[in-house]
Model the fold of this input.
Amino acid sequence: SNKKKLKEHKMQKLGNLSTASNSDVSQIECNPRYPQVVASASGNNILVWDLHRPESQTETLNNYKGITSISWKCSEDKILASASQDNNLILWDVRSCNRIKSVYQQQ
Done:
């Protein structure tokens, strides 16, 4: 299908992203509005990339402890959520690299 071919093409372009990090890339999410903008989770960091310029990482967002999940907010192309092993949920403004909100859930 065309969707599968597009995903395979994006994954080929993303192949060099893991070399820019000291940790393995655990997750990759494409921005729903701008599919050339990609967030990748690696260790405690989220790297935001523009696939039109894959050699240059655009932003680095630092989380507290091992990222378990990342997701773009569909209605706000600049908002990214991250969850981590220490039960933090953080909403990020990727354009300014600022935390919009941080929620900690005790176990």
In short: Helices lie at 2-14.
